[in-house]
Task: structure prediction
Amino acid sequence: MGPMDVLVGCDFSKQFEFYSPFVITKGTYMSTKANIFVAYTVQRTGANQVLDDDITILDDDDSEEDTRVEIQTFFFISTSNENNPKKNPGIVHDALQKVFDHLNFGRPGGPRSVFLVSDGEYRNRHHFAWLGKQAVERKGDLWWSFYVAGHGKGLYDSEGGVLKTWARAYVKQHSTPEFNPINDIHDLIKHARDNLANPKGRAGKPPTVVKRHFFHQEGIIEQAKNGVQVAGSNMLYAYRARGSRDSLVEAREFSCFCDICLTFGMNCTRPGGPWKKTGAGYIRDDSDDGDETGDDE
Result:
């Protein structure tokens, strides 16, 4: 990963349940559930260039000794049953666009390339179309690698666990028979920002995660419905789009980051076969002129 590149991982961290244990109807606790979608960024930073919130990135002439790897996590919380990231791709797009904005991706001084990683269950045509659209609009290179689905594997799972475990302990420690400190999504975000936003290291070592950000996804996020079916996508686990060239999304069976792949060459000789052009890409709105970009193979 180069000095101007960022790794972004994301996953649904299941749900957190808000209990109102002091309002009991027929012996049943009243409760609501919040969906928690977690993203994290991994970025090599240096001392010469400010990115955002005192986060710095490495200039090309910085040395390795001047750099370090910093991780930030982003929590997107919603109480709407329709805002489930696994059922509504629009939730994922809304969250990742906020992460891109925070990174200044597509703006002067921002990263040149973003590498997305997630479970394979997010592999669908609406995400592919969104990938091409973001590459075009932000004029940057985007990659999305999908891996085997499963709970508890990645940093997004552990960070989701940090939030939920802390919230339960906070309620247990501060609640009284008349008061519940985390009664709804606004309480959760407020207290999480106060207690978790700036992690502290242990035993003189810096924290693994340097910053946590919390967002309330309000209302119902519109469903993404503009994806073009990609032939053979059930066997393709790596996707990329280059904003400086065109909006078409290319794919291959496995992720690879060799020199050929990173420079958008097509004929990678490593396992996974060559890159193939797909029909996914920048799908125009009804108000735009012209046809859809790309043809299905």
About this structure: The longest strand covers residues 5-25. Residues 155-174 form the longest helix (20 residues).
